[in-house]
Amino acid sequence: MVTGQFFRKMGAAAAAALALMPALAFAQQSSAGHPEPGQFHLQPSVTPIMDSIVAFHDGILMWSISLIVLLVLALLVIVMVRFNAKANPVPARFTHNTLVEVIWTVVPILALVVIAIPSFGVLSDQMTMPDGERKYLGANVFSMGEVDVPAPALTVKASGEQWYWNYEYVDQGVAFDSNMLNEDEIAALKPGQPRLLAVNNELVVPVNTTVRMQITASPSGVIHAFAVPSFGIKVDAVPGRLNETWFNARETGMYYGQCSELCGKDHAFMPIGVRVVTEPEFEAFITAFEESRDYATAVATLPAL
Ligand SMILES: [Cu+2]
């Protein structure tokens, strides 16, 4: 039967495409700390938290989504081919089937449990400040924790303003504002930096160091959210409330994020730029910042971007 063949071919093509999806996702890795045109996966990870998010996405979510889509597709094809009016002119008239109802209740519950167990592990890693002893999941979301993370050595407070970010090195008592650069400013000051993401003053942090991020918003302002995809962090910035998260980046470079809570007219224009530098570079930067209390003087100690 022509229709049946057509649907069988469609089913096979869809199955092949879906089976390839997780493999394709793996093939899309690159090292940029910002999204790229045509990108089709999460941004490359540089922290243990993002490692676990990527592993959870590629290892569990993609496979369960793909299998569920294939199962539903197969059921639809069976119904269309075997139970259309021509193939099945006299329909059955039963209204219940206890076995089928038990199966379609229990199987989704099992699927949710399989997804939930590692997801709670990933979540608690994100919410638990390292103390130097706790082990983190890293890329193995089914482990009981196997990645060592040192206790925080630096505390940064990010405050969402209307519409830019203010960063404070809390223990050093120095702070600065970070505003988006427009295209002319990028061309003049920081050629090659990405449009709508480049900022005038980047948050500078050391590599391989646990950074405690305190996140809030201007007391007279609105809610924002601080998010850096390559670090796997996204935390609400709420006026009058101090939220906390952490990251430990293993590669130097520029990493970009964006305000991720709709906050008003310039929500799309308050990007987050984090520059991860070597430890000696950071020492020079923060010493100069403490002495001069001037961001421009401090950042002049770093190599040009
Ligand atoms: Cu905002």
Automatic annotation (TrEMBL):
Residues 151-288 form the Cytochrome oxidase subunit II copper A binding domain. Its EC number is 7.1.1.9. The chain crosses the membrane at residues 60-81, 102-123. GO terms for molecular function: copper ion binding; cytochrome-c oxidase activity; oxidoreductase activity. Binds a copper A center. Residues 1-27 form the signal peptide. The keyword Lipid metabolism does not apply. Its main location: membrane. It is a multi-pass membrane protein. InterPro entries: CcO_II, CcO_II-like_C, CcO_II_C, Copper_CuA, Cupredoxin, Cyt_c_oxidase_su2, Cyt_c_oxidase_su2_TM_dom, Cyt_c_oxidase_su2_TM_sf. Pfam families: COX2 (PF00116), COX2_TM (PF02790). This is Cytochrome c oxidase subunit 2. It comes from Devosia elaeis.
